Amino acid sequence: MPIALITGVSGQDGSYLAQLLLAKGYEVHGIVRRSSVLNRSRLEQLHGANGAVSLALHYGDLDDPLGLLRLIEAVGPDEIYHLAAQSHVGVSFEIPDYTSSVTGLGTLRVLEALRLSGCQARFYQASSSEMFGSAPPPQNEQTPFHPRSPYGVAKVFAYWATVNYRESYGMFASNGILFNHESPRRGENFVTRKVTRAVASILAGTQRELHLGNLDAMRDWGFAGDYVEGMWRILQHDQPDDFVLATGEAHSVRELCEVAFSHVGLDHEKYVAIDPRYFRPAEVDFLLGDPAKANRLLGWTPSTTFRQLVTTMVDADRAELGA
After folding, report:
1. Tell me, what DSSP letter sits at residue 216?
2. Which of 56, 79, 105, 193, by CA, is between 20 and 30 Å from 15?
3. Please, what CATH class does the domain formed by 3-182+222-245 belong to?
4. The overall pTM is greater than 0.90
5. Nearest of 159, 156, 296, 178 to residue 229 by alpha carbon
6. What is the rounded distance in angstroms from the CA atom of residue 217 to the CA atom of residue 284?
7. What angle is formed at CA 224 by the lines to CA 125 and CA 97, rounded to 5 degrees?
8. What is 191-219+250-282+303-321's CATH number?
9. CB 14, CB 225: distance < 8 Å
10. Domain boundaries, the chain
11. Which residues are catalytic?
């Protein structure tokens, strides 16, 4: 039975990945941060008979390199999926030092702990389309990075750290450069979930308006459940490499609002207001991924359309709020 270790297991991607790996027969271990409030709602679907959780959870932190080393030595994983990060782009402008430490140096700490442990685990780094920033679309594995946020800068550091450990120490270390991927498990402060949650709240009568920033920003949005399959395939490839995972289609935030509101018979223009507070110091206008390499070498293609993704998220939020 293969053993996998997931950092950030309680997040959107971590929960979908744990679910996928358990279905494939893995023994799955996840790292969670110690907190006074348990935030593991995304892992509830992994509860088995009598409420038993089907994966092992361990306390750890990306700021604790010795703890990471001990954990890798104790678990002895065959695969490590490094998903943990301060992952909100807007927030990264407010806490750039913390974002850099966790998202950038945190990756280096995991890589160094893996190297020092002597463990031969295959390593997956969750890289991001935000590394491309203002690079002209479409963006692929050869596109030069031009990040436009502290988060994007930290992810570029983590990307090159992964490449460096691969080339310096012969580690099986790969980057998955994932474009935006969403689901009903997405955090409520991310724009997709903010929109779908607002639709449900407006129907429920608990919200009147939705305040957003740049409605013309274009993004390549896919379903997180499809993308974790791509992560797994990256580590099953015969050699370590870097891959873009994307749908190859771009949609504006305005179109996101149109689809979400029209799904329940509402006109988004009556509810959406532009709020200058949500504009970033440096905007990323157009992200559009070219997943041809992943399609060709991994046999990976996303199966969920943009409209299916948005309407599924709206329906899930309506069900949760009883709207």
Report:
1. T
2. 105
3. alpha beta
4. yes
5. 178
6. 7
7. 45
8. 3.90.25.10
9. no
10. 3-182+222-245, 191-219+250-282+303-321
11. 128, 130, 151
